[in-house]
Design goal:
Blueprint (H helix, E strand, L loop, with lengths): L15 H5 L14 H12 L4 H14 L2 H12 L12 H9 L8 H13 L3 H14 L4 H17 L3 H13 L6 H17 L3 H13 L6 H13 L3 H13 L6 H13 L3 H13 L6 H8 L3 H6 L10 H7 L2 H11 L3 H5 E4 L2 E5 L5 H21 L7 E5 L13 H12 L5 E3 L2 E8 H10 L5
Parallel strand pairs: 2-3
Antiparallel strand pairs: 1-2, 3-5, 4-5
Helix pairs in contact: 3-5, 4-5, 6-7, 6-8, 8-9, 8-10, 9-10, 10-11, 10-12, 11-12, 12-13, 12-14, 14-15, 14-16, 15-19, 16-21, 21-22
Protein name: Smr domain-containing protein
Keywords: Repeat
Organism: Nelumbo nucifera (Sacred lotus)
Length: 451
């Protein structure tokens, strides 16, 4: 291991800390490919082995595409989760073509992502050439070059390349001989997070200790990185030890950290541990979030299995609980007592709106069951104003694995049809179900089976 050699001797300019808190975004949020993007990749696959034809396709696609479509296609190619490995030789030509467009603004995060991908795909010479080109473009400015190397470390960690992380860190370490606090903190943050991402949490923890010796107090970010790193590997004793150190350092356990813990337990099917942690969150007044729901619900095997066929999912909370295992039931009961539904539900005289954005399929399913229960309860009480209209917003599938095919929308549609709901897809917004307030009330009050 290189743990003992990872000593920081770096320098940032005085304004770097401010710069760090206003980091440039990576080009665009990841979105599902458009139909045009799918056709483009299909054409590239058909042109395999014909570089001239592939370059013509790339030139035509970039020239006729919007900035978002072109960059999104590139992001799909270089993603660590890409399924287009057979097109790896076309990443650099596509990046070069995009860089020639009039709308392109050089972005260190984007080029770092391309470099890490090229190196991971066995194109080290191309990657090295792009590194040299980038350093020259930055004019050898210490701060900018250092930040670029930090971006490079981060990109290599996303590709899960340990060698890339260490080599990029070595470049950063050799950049300067003097030390400046803002540079050193940024460098520590980057390497600690990246070491955890490549499953080296013990090395990362050693870096935290070195960071402390160097005079920097570790932030909640470093502790969370360690929690995630140990938890992902199932090293729960170490994860709990870090949580105690985090509290001893003066940081309270919050929703973000708790969600990391839940995700770790869920990844290793420790459902009883998840239930215990949810109780701890409630006892400590740590609020639940949509991500809390996502982490828990995605870990329930029975629910995941039920959602494979939407035509037969239970339509009532009681029916659902009757099909769950004991630990799964405990998890669901802990969740439904939280405020997540109320946070997603807006109620006023003009509109009753439920927003399912950010919810994974299993979460949206449970929230829909809760929503029906809450609405029936309010209508039965008789002291709630009936909104003019009800809306359930589920999205049109822009961020789904297949663009335009939203699993949540498909779920809501099936539930509405099977429950004979008056709510229909909005003509003006295909990602939304809408119904008149009184019609929805009459439907829920007269429904013939137990929900």
């Amino acid at each position: 291991m290189m743990t003992g050699t990872l000593q920081l001797a770096l320098a940032f300019s005085a304004d770097l800390l401010h710069h760090h808190h206003h980091r440039r975004p990576l080009f665009l949020p990841w979105c599902a490919l458009s139909k045009k993007g799918h056709r483009f990749f299909t054409s590239l696959a058909a042109a395999a082995g014909d570089s001239a034809a592939a370059n013509r396709l790339i030139r035509k696609f970039v020239a006729s595409s919007s900035k978002s479509d072109a960059l999104n296609a590139l992001s799909h190619l270089i993603s660590s989760n890409t399924t287009h490995f057979h097109l790896s030789s076309l990443v650099l030509p596509m990046y070069r073509r995009i860089a020639e467009t009039p709308w392109f603004n050089w972005n260190p995060k984007l080029v770092a992502s391309v470099i890490a991908y090229l190196d991971k795909q066995g194109q080290p010479e191309e990657a090295e050439a792009l590194i040299s080109e980038s350093v020259q473009k930055l004019g050898f400015q210490e701060r900018d070059v250092a930040l670029f190397y930090c971006d490079l470390i981060d990109s290599y960690s996303k590709q899960r390349s340990r060698i890339g992380v260490f080599e990029s860190y070595a470049r950063l370490k050799q950049l300067f001989s003097d030390s400046s606090s803002s540079l050193s903190r940024r460098a520590y943050e980057t390497i600690i997070c990246s070491l955890c991402s490549v499953d080296l949490p013990r090395d990362a923890e050693n870096m935290v200790e070195e960071m402390t010796i160097s005079g920097f107090k570790p932030s909640a970010f470093e502790f969370r990185s360690l929690v995630s790193g140990y938890g992902r590997l199932g090293l729960f004793t170490d994860m709990r030890r870090v949580l105690r150190k985090m509290e001893d350092a003066g940081y309270c356990l919050d929703t973000i950290c708790s969600n990391m813990v839940l995700s770790s337990f869920g990844a290793h099917s420790e459902l009883s541990e998840m239930a215990s942690w949810l109780r701890k969150m409630k006892d400590s007044n740590i609020s639940f979030s949509i991500r809390t729901y996502n982490s828990v619900m995605n870990s329930c095997p029975t629910i995941t299995s039920l959602l494979k066929d939407l035509k037969f999912v239970p339509l009532s909370m009681e029916d659902l609980k009757g099909r769950l295992q004991k630990d799964e039931t405990l998890l669901v009961e802990q969740l439904i007592g939280s405020s997540v539904l109320m946070d997603a539900l807006k109620w006023c005289p003009s509109e009753g709106k439920l927003d399912l954005h950010g919810m994974h399929l299993a979460t949206a399913y449970l929230i829909m069951l809760q929503w029906v229960q809450v609405l029936r309860s309010r209508f039965s009480a008789g002291n709630w104003v009936i909104p003019t209209e009800f809306r359930v917003i589920c999205g049109s599938g822009k961020h789904s694995s297949v663009r335009g095919e939203s699993p949540v929308k498909a779920l809501v549609k099936q539930m509405m049809v099977r429950m004979k709901s008056p709510m229909k897809i909005d003509r003006n917004n295909v990602g939304c179900f809408v119904g008149r307030g009184k019609a929805v009330r009459d439907w829920l009050c007269c429904i013939h089976y137990d929900l």
